[in-house]
Each structure stands twice: as structure tokens, then as C-alpha cells.
Amino acid sequence: MTRPKLQIRDLTLRDGQQSLFATRMKQETINRLLPYYEDARFHIMEVWGGAVPDSVMRYLDESPWQRLRTFSEAMDSKSDHPKALLSALSRGRNLFGYVPYPDSVLEGFYKEAIANGLNVMRIFDALNDIDNVKESIRLINRLGGIADGAVCYTVDPKPEAPAKPEGFLGKLKAMFGSREEGPAPIFTDEYFVSKAKQMEALGAKIITLKDMAGLVNPLRAASIISALKREVKVPVDFHTHCTPGYGLASSLMAIINGVDILDTNIWWFGGGSAAPAIELIWIFCQRMGVEVEVNMEAVGRIRTELLEARKELAQFDLNKDNMPRPFDPLTDKLPPEVLALFDSAIEFAKAKDEAALLDACHKIEAYFGFPKPNELVKTAEVPGGMYSNMVAQLKQLQSEDLLEDAMRLIPMVRRDAGLIPLVTPTSQIVGSQAVLVALDRKNGKPDYTNKSNQFISLVKGEYGKTPVAIDPAFREKITGSPEEKPYDVSAYRKPENPELPELGGRKLASNTEEYLLLELLPSVANGFLRKRRKEEFEAEESVKAPAAPAAEEAPAETAEPITGPVIAAPMSGRVVSINVKPGQEVKPGDTVLVYEAMKMENDIESEISGVVKRVLVSVDDQVATDTPLIEFEN
């Protein structure tokens, strides 16, 4: 009898570091790890897409394209075994950004990515709107890649909770509600299978159940995976996270129900808000007679190097003082009672005893020192990556005190916006808007006084069809019109690629791949590319002439005191554009400035009539909450 086999998609260098360390792994760290990956024989390595193109420019001042090329060159196997397929995560119509893009931008990015070594593009839409993925599937297939259609898992809304809650969990249920009673479910097994079959019909060569929040409990994993295996002919992949405590148990259930590919991380980057550790999955498979198609000796060599990499990311590590204990499944002998937990978990999974299965898996994770289930995340039903990014962003904004309020508001914002799944970019849009509503309440203002441009676009209809129709009255409140208005591809305007006279007349983007970054992420790419042109200009000038002697510093000018009314920043962020100038008359409702906070662009509108006296900031300035931005004449 042939042993069942399980293929692995390793997430360590993309989703693993994004979920646990806010995508802050530097290229130099990756370069140390890559030599150990060639012999690991993963079926797929996820290395790009998601938050990587944005984050490596924004936080690390590195090129996303160079990162992809480095992976491709390192994995250009000369050995006799097949090299791992390199995969990226694409948000369909949103690519790797936060707004919808026309087909020309999609094609440009996919063509360049495949030319730089990408093999598999996992394509999803945050709204599960099939219209938003069909062109990406078609393009990836035409350009020679492998289209992986991902269905985003989400759950139905919770009705209001009973009054006077008792205990910690009671308070959490009061905060977010309970699903014990409610209307007929929307997100049924049939809903997810239908989406998968539509993607397969469009040409998807892999189907992924993408559980970005880790909310697929074991029994749902069993029912959905088994249904997918019956209904689709292509390989089925399961992607989940461990944040709320289901990940390990649900992955075991997926294996038992015939999943073809499982997403995992390597030990130091596994568990918590990330996917399960491959070492624990391997033990389960060993005890079930399932062959894991991975070289675990090579995985051990990567694991050794990853410990140092994790230490380097300590400032972004939410569990740096509570890491798992070191473990090598090939050499370390486990106590009989721990091995018994693995065997019990398998039996409980086969018997579909979910409570006992979860208890056994939680005891296994506790033994090895992985984080406990996050009850707040479990009850609020948010992705681990969204949670860790909210923590990192709020820390950067010095607004950590808003985290609990913002988390509490997420379900409300999600319902108002059409019951959308929470996965990038909708998770960032909803998370950012929840923070803005928390700020509104803190400042005594009505909800949704401050709105990000992306939230307005989402409610307007520009991101696609939401699973549940948005209340026209709410749409009018947010957008000014009750009518749904889809994204108009014909309205897209390519960004300018200006010459920079101050830097020798160079173009801002010097080639196709740089211009694609400007199309995709104009705000962050602008700053990134300006730095590259400045470096080139300064290098050229240093060759032409020796450095001039340092000029004496002029005495600092005393700032003119502010005497007139001002518009101040509602929260910390970066100035993107300024729409007014001194002497200009402004009316209430006029947009005077655009700033970026938590990766979202926000319009600042005037609340007063007056004449601009001074603009107190410049483009690209970082501003703190309540920083004066515009001063008006008295």
C-alpha cells in the first residue's frame, strides 16, 4: 500500500516574518539563510508579495525586486532534485497595494515577477469577489506561471451579547458578541466550495483555503477540506495561523481529510500568530504513516540559523521573552507522556472530538513553549498579521493606549462595511478605520468623523462587491452618495515620472521595475526612489570635484509664533501632499492636506472658513498627533 504524502509550502521568509515580526527581516539576514534552503526540498517557498514590496521599501530601504532576484538566484538548483517553486501572494485586483489597479498594471507586475524568477502566484480577493481575481489567473497562466486561487475564510457576524457578563471570557463576549444565536449563516461550506470551483474553472492550478485569522476550527477544517477534495480536481492547500489556538489541531484535521499541501513555518518562526511549526506537523505525520516530502536534516540546519535571525528581530517580537524551547525532532527524545499527547490528538481528530483534540494540541504547544491561544484575537476574529501590525503601528504612533478600543471597534466597522473578510488590504483598511473611530471617540467626536481614503473607496464600491450589501444610508454618510460606484478602470491615471533638476535631471524611476513600484505604491516608492537618485547624484558629484569645506552654520531663525486658528494632525503620520498655499481662501469641507498613517492615506478637511496664513509642514514630514499643519489669518 502506498504511503500517503504531504507536500509543504514553507512560509518562514514571507508570511512567517510578517505575522511575527511585522516584515522587518533585512536582506543581509535572508542572505545568510538561503544557502541552507536548497537541500530542504520544500515543494513551494513563499518568499514575496503580501506586505514585502511595501515594507522592505518603507522600513528597510531595500528593493523588492532585488529581494526576489536574490531568492531566485539562490534556488537555481544544480542538484538532481527539483528546486522549490517560489511563490508570492497577490491581492488580485489590488496586487501588493491598497487600491484597485487596471489590467495594464497587473500585467506589468506579473510579467516582471515571473521574469525575475517567480513560479507560483497565490491570488486572492479580500472580498472573495471572483471578478477581482479572474484577470490575474488568466495573466499568470498566459505568462508561464502557476495560478493558485485562494478562497478567504471568514465567519458570520455575532449577534449582540447578553447583559451583565461575568468573568474574563464573559467580558470578551460582551465586547464582541456571541454566535450562539443569529440569522441563517452566510459563510457556509457551500459558499467556500463555490468560490473554489469558480476559480478552478477560470484556470487555477492550485486551490487554497486561506485562513488568515486562524479561525478555521478543526471541525470546519474537516468539512471544508473534505468538500474541496470531492469537488475540485487540482491540488488543495490549507493555510492557517495559530493565533486563536486552532492552527495545529486544524492542520492535523486537514491532513487526515486529504489535503495535498500544508503551509508551515520552521520552529523559531512558527506558532503564535504564524502558521504551525513544521516540526510538530512532521511528528504527527510520522505517527500516522504520512510521508512529508521535505528533507528534515536540511530543515534542522535552517532552524539553527533562524534562532539568530529571530534575536535580530527582537524589537518587533511580541514573544521575545517567551520563545519556544529548542527542539530537533530527529535527535531529541520526547517523554512518553508527550508522545501520548500526539497519539491522542490523532485519535480525537479521527473521532471528531474537537474539544479533546484542542486540549491535546494546546498541551503539546505548552510543553514546547509556544504562545497560548490569544483569546482577544479569537473573540475579535482578526488575523494575526493584522494584530501584530496594529501593535507595531500604534507603538510607532505612540498611541498604544488605543489598541483595546480599536480592537473592540473592529467588528462594528466590519459589519458597517458589508461584512468583509479581514485580509490585506481590507484588514488594514478596517484596522486603520477602527483606530480613527477610537480617536474620534477619545476626542468627543461622532464615529467616522475621520475616514481614510481607502475606507471611503471600500464603502463606495471601488474594491468590489461586498459579501453583504452595505446600508445605503451608511454609504451616503461615508461617501456622500447612497449609490454604489464600482472602480472605473478608465479613470486610472499613470503616475508621473518627473525629472529631478536638483539631482542632475535624473528621472525619478530609472527603469521599468522602478516605475512599476511607483504605479503600485506611489507614496512609499517616491521616497525610496528619491534616495536612490540622490545616492547616484552624490556619487557622480564626488568624482567630479573634491568635497567643499563645511560652511559655517547660520544662526537659527526664531520661529514666528502661531497666533491664528490652526488645523492639526488627528494622529501621527507622514505628509503626502499639500493642497493649499498662503493667501488661499478655504471653505469648510475643502481638503487642505493628505497624510499617511498606518499605511492608509487620509484627507484632512478644513472645518472653518478663512485665508491660509502659513503652511507649517512640508511633504514627507513626519508629524505627531496634534501637530499644527495649517495656520489661518485671524
Number of strands: 19
Question: Main beta sheet, described?
Answer: 8 strands, parallel, barrel
CATH superfamily caption of the largest domain: Aldolase class I
Structural class by secondary-structure content: alpha/beta
Helix content: 40-55%
What's the rounded overall pLDDT mean?
88
How far apart are the termini? Answer: 87 Å
Provide a quick synopsis of the model.
This protein is of the alpha/beta class and 634 residues long. It has 22 helices and 19 strands. It has 4 domains: 5-159 and 185-330, Aldolase class I (TIM Barrel); 379-466, Cyclin A, domain 1; 499-541, no CATH class; 566-632, RNA polymerase II/Efflux pump adaptor protein, barrel-sandwich hybrid domain (OB fold (Dihydrolipoamide Acetyltransferase, E2P), Beta Barrel).
SSE topology sketch:
Layout: E1 5-10, H1 12-21, H2 27-33, E2 44-49, H3 52-58, H4 64-74, E3 85-90, H5 103-115, E4 120-123, H6 134-142, E5 146-152, H7 167-176, H8 189-202, E6 206-210, H9 218-231, E7 236-239, H10 247-256, E8 261-264, H11 278-288, E9 291-292, H12 296-312, H13 336-350, H14 354-368, H15 375-380, H16 384-396, H17 403-416, H18 426-442, H19 453-460, H20 472-479, E10 499-500, E11 506-507, H21 512-520, H22 522-544, E12 566-568, E13 573-578, E14 585-586, E15 591-597, E16 600-605, E17 610-615, E18 622-623, E19 628-632
Parallel strand pairs: 1-2, 1-8, 1-9, 2-3, 3-4, 4-5, 5-6, 6-7, 7-8
Antiparallel strand pairs: 10-11, 12-19, 13-15, 13-18, 14-17, 15-16, 17-19
Helix pairs in contact: 1-16, 5-6, 5-21, 8-9, 9-10, 10-11, 10-13, 13-14, 17-18, 19-20, 21-22
